[in-house]
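for the record, two folds in this file. i put them one after another cuz i was lazy. first one right below, seq on top, structure tokens after. the second one comes after a little note so u can tell where it starts
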Amino acid sequence: MGFTSRMARSALLAVCSVAAIAAPIATPAAYAGTRIKDITDFEGVRENQLVGYGLVVGLAGTGDSLRNSAFTRQSLEAMLERLGVAAAGANLNTRNVAAVMVTANLPPFASQGSRIDVTVSALGDARSLAGGQLLVTPLMGADQQVYAVAQGPLAIGGFSASGQSGSSVTRGVPTAGRIASGALVEREIHFDIAAQQELRLALRNPDFTTAQRVAAAINHLVGANAARATNPGSVVLSRPSDYAGDMVSLIGQIENLEVEVDTPARIVIDESSGIVVMGENVKVSTVAIAQGNLTISIQEDPFVSQPAPLSRGETVVVPSTGVDVEEEEGGLVMVPGGVPLRQLVNGLNALGVTPRDMISILQALKAAGAIQAEIEVM
């Protein structure tokens, strides 16, 4: 009886396993669109840039040369004076100090006492900031007010080494580094977003169609006339009078709404690196394309002409030049009109073109009026 039960359970498990394999795997719904929070910026919710000037100490002879960096000497003397050390006029000849600029981004709604990352970059002729310690540096905003104070050991991603013969090797950038959580926020930027009755959403890529879709999605959720597109880059959101929550709760509801982003047909070309990026809406009219490469090789092979013995002649170098012209056979490919991007790429690949050849073909198509897209050359 026990053996039969085990056989029955094994058969049942086998049937369940086969059913699980045969059943279609549940896949998420087709991509519906992009969240509003990913394509817009809310007015007032942004970072603020901070900057400060400071000194890095503890460098192993790789700091600024005080003879060439007058500002480093002045800063070092002023710091020692504040600490009660009379250094004015002294013969300071150390390379363990470097003057640096300290930058940071103050996040929106950063509270007093929170920490932010800072970036430290050398100002003078320091060779490396590895092993350095940043001294207390106030970080100021555009209004010349101090918003954070930075201090701490630097983390350098690069290195530099040299020998007595003058040979050296450098990897990365040894004169710049970061201090994770190296600054303490001392002043908050007050912005009462909860009490706002109206807020503007700025589209990162302005577009009339996308702006209208964002406004329509918000109105469908909140109510008619809650949002309106004022221009291709802005949507104004008004808190309805009958809405129970504040602006924060309203933003929390609408920022996850998905809309379909509309993008113009555009081709971006970087001729220096041979990069071509085409949008999905790029289409071409019916056109025939032929492509062939012309290669010209010039080889110089001079030889020395010796005169006959006792002929009183001179030894001369006679130039010898060989020119070879090679032209690849290029076929003619027909690209039908109104094709999508995939067929256009397949048609160009059928010609065996390189990225740089594709740049010339795309520019020729634009000149012929056969491509419906904007070409942007970087």
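(here's the note) second protein begins now
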Amino acid sequence: MSVLADTNVVLGVSGSIAAVKTVELAHELRREGANVTPVMTDSARGIIHPWALEFATENEVVTEITGKVEHVDLFGADGWADVFLLAPATANTVGKIAAGIDDTTVTTCATTALGQGVPLVVAPAMHEPMYDHPGVLDSLDTLESWGVTVVDPRPEEGKAKIATEEAIVTTTARVAGDSPLAGQHVVVTSGPTSETIDPVRVLTNRASGKTGRALARACYVRGADVTLLHDGTDVPYASVERVESAAEMTETAVEVVGGGADALVSAAAISDYTIEASDEKIRSGGELTLELEPTPKLLDTVRASAPDLTMVGFKLETEGDDERLVATAREQLARVGLSFVVANRADALAGDETRVIIVREAETTSYTGPKTAVANDIADELAVEL
């Protein structure tokens, strides 16, 4: 299931040049399952034509408040909207909403939404000196004190650029959702690890990290505070701890869990073997034998440090049928004391599609589909355990 399935999103567009990005933003909201109705200010219409958003959303664009009282239809007691996403939000619009001024379509909708208790998400976009103005910052603080969620802009090239589509859509899904993991700190491991052979070469595996990142996002959407352990870049839905080797991932997992965590989901393809690294590049051209040493198991190590922690493991196999895969997963389940094991096959490592079997002591459940959708299913299974 997509993170915004059957969610009614009103997309408010004010007069920032970032309005040109709203067509793709609308498409992305719809890809995640949302129904989208745009509302535009006069200034926004000077930057992007309403027809573009009508095409992108397949809904009529609200460009004025008429006798049909569009703001009440959208945000009144029986209104259509589940969430109001204001993206981009200019300094002018942010200030007006904080002051209770409703002299545009967008600000009138914001006033109505706030009065009715409809969640509001604001994604500012403006030049950086405008964003740094004390009045603008005070206005954003005021909105946050009212329960409004602000998606921080990206400071680049002297501008406070609108946040990425991923950040905006993910935050909107979190705000609009049921939040079964609210108040929970979930630690997720993801992707491959790499063992250094020499300054140039590493020993690694084919894991892409897509499932782990999707799991971290799915937990965040459900209200969790998420820490992601991987050898990758920052993401908008988790605090990232960058690790490279199996030892680094294991040590960091123990440290983060020890600092206070409610669950660990170990989706990473962690190296089973390591090697004593050479300080210099090994010369090529001749035969070479590498002596591999087994690495400690992350799940066992974390369990020893946190006996009562809710933990989920992954088990990957290349041979045998489902019966064998489930049996192997249950061995891990019993050895470590896991809540459940996500069992899958190696042929799903690199692609976007996957099939997994959720293995518990007395039952199994299968999920098949895109890794993002399956991650949502796994996150729902985790929520049952917490």
